Structures are given as structure tokens and as C-alpha cells.
């Protein structure tokens, strides 16, 4: 199965200055990977709160937010806050850095981005030193990470350095997920984003260049149970946009019941970045609207909410007590990781 971007490949030179100005650091020889410090990393360094992923045991101050596929995605979702143009679905280059280079360079970039906090009087100096030893990698910053042909090897390389992996995918590359299973490259958390409940809406709302996107997503969802059996915490994430895909709670519930992830995340669209040029502000649901939608879905699936984060406009629900028990066990282990000190 191909990546949907082979035909008519155009090589597009990235505007690295634009990304640098936006706070990214583009790394590697072939410039397809990047790191950015997220708001919750900044918050933790200043003595503030964690992001909602604390429900999974994540310490935001020790988390690297990165991508191996900068500005390369087979979707052009209007709610995406990233900038993209007509070539987003086409390769900006067909040469790829190896996982060792990406991991080495992303850690170096993370430390450089954090260096300014060292002299900030609001920064806890002992915590700052701890933050320089990252323990978690969220592979979710930009683009579709499973388009990187060595995603399995990247996950294994990150784990070999004593860090966890949180992989967020749109589910259109089930062959890459199968390869991860074959190579025993099991992420700590696997998030599959689900944007609609049927084939017609899927292409419509994601502006997909892949006509069979929905079928590919279903194939990816069918692998969740095997990932769970291999020790991965599995998540179906719903990014909900009013007037677009925040509808058919019964359809979403049917998918959740069929594929049985450990968790469901209900994420309200935030009117940020480039998405403001594509959508109006009223497309962003209030927390009350998000809660009502979650309750309608959970009433059918019988999942129970365990995290209600009004600041991030996210609700996390868990499948059952066993999923929650195992999550707490994993969280206890990863919270004590020494992190990468190389």
C-alpha cells in the first residue's frame, strides 16, 4: 500500500525561516524533522501545571514534541493550526535521515530551545536540569508521522535511549502499523485520530488525497487490540469541529465499541494558527458542548470519563477498570524514568 503521494511528486523547498520564527527547530541533514517546545513544557518549567497527558503519567517538562514528517501530510484538515499549501501532500524530498540522526538532533534541539529557561528567575533550577534529560517523545507535532518510512526503527531508537513514545497517526498507513508489530516497535501510547464516521464525510472533512482513507483508518483501528496485547495503551482521538464533524455520536460510538481502545479522547477544535483563515471562531465548541457530546457517546460505549480538562478543552474516557489499572501501573513506571542523558 502506497502513501498516496507518489504520483506527480514535486520537490518543494521548505521556508526554514518561517518555521524558525514560529519556534520550530528543523533538524537533520534532509530537513524533514522538527522540534517545538509546547506551552505545557513552558508551564512546567515555570512551576505551572502539566498538560492533560498527565493522565497517562507524562511530565510535560520532560517531553519532546517532534515530527519526522514536517509539512508532509496526506490530509489538509481545515481545523489544523499548521500552515500548509498546495504541496502538503507531496514529498519535499525523497531522502530521509536515519532514526539515529533524528533522535540525536532532536534532543540537541530540545536542549537548545530550553537553554533560555536556565537564566529565568521563575525557573526551578533543579527541575530545569531534570528537563534537560527528556523522558518522553510525542510524535505529533506536524504532518503524518507514519509517512516516514522508518517509523518503526525511530520508535525503537527512542526507546533504546530510555524514553517513551506517544505516536499520533491519522490511520491512513496501516501497513506501517503492521510493520511496527512485525518489528516489535510498540509505542507506549498509540493514538489513532478519527475524523468522521463514514467514507463520504471522511474525504470531505479531511480534504484527503486518498480516496479510500476511511477504509484505511478502519484497517488501522482493527490493529488496536494487537497493540494492546503487546503492552501499548491504545486511544481513539476525536477532534470535533462544530458544523463539520461534531455530529453522529452514535456513529462514533459504534466505531469505539467495535475496536475497543483503552481510551477515547474528545478534543474540541481550538481556533488557533492558520485554521483561523479556514474556519470561523464559532466552529470551536465550548467545553459544555464538548461534554454533552462526550456524554452521548459514552452513554452508548459505557466508557467513563477520567480527565476533564477545560483549559485544553479535552475529555478522556476509559474503557474499563482493567484498562485504568494497567494505565496507572505504566504511569508509575514511566514517571520514574531517568531520561536521556547522552
Order of helices and strands: HEEHEHHEHEHEHHHEHEHEEH
Helix content: 25-40%
Radius of gyration: 19 Å
Q: N- to C-terminal separation?
A: 37 Å
Q: What is the number of helical segments per DSSP (H or I, 4+ residues)?
A: 12
Count of β-strands: 10
- Characterize the main sheet: 10 strands, mixed
- The CATH topology assignment is TIM Barrel
Query: How many separate domains?
Result: 1
Class from secondary-structure proportions: alpha/beta
Overview of the molecule:
The protein is of the alpha/beta class. The chain has one domain: Aldolase class I (TIM Barrel, Alpha-Beta Barrel). Helix content is 35%, strand content 15%. It contains twelve helices and ten strands. A ten-stranded mixed beta sheet has the order 1-2-3-4-5-6-7-8-10-9. α3 packs across α5 and α10 crosses α11. The longest helix has 16 residues. The radius of gyration is 19 Å and the shape is globular. The N terminus is likely disordered.
What structural keywords apply?
ten-stranded mixed β-sheet, TIM Barrel, about 350 residues, globular, alpha/beta, disordered N terminus
Write a brief structural summary.
With 342 residues, the chain is α/β, with parallel strands linked by helices. 35% of the residues lie in helices and 15% in strands.
Topology:
Layout: H1 16-21, E1 24-27, E2 33-36, H2 39-45, E3 63-67, H3 99-114, H4 125-131, E4 136-139, H5 151-160, E5 164-169, H6 174-182, E6 189-193, H7 199-206, H8 213-221, H9 224-229, E7 233-240, H10 249-259, E8 263-268, H11 287-301, E9 304-309, E10 314-318, H12 321-334
Parallel strand pairs: 3-4, 4-5, 5-6, 6-7, 7-8
Antiparallel strand pairs: 1-2, 2-3, 8-10, 9-10
Helix pairs in contact: 3-5, 10-11
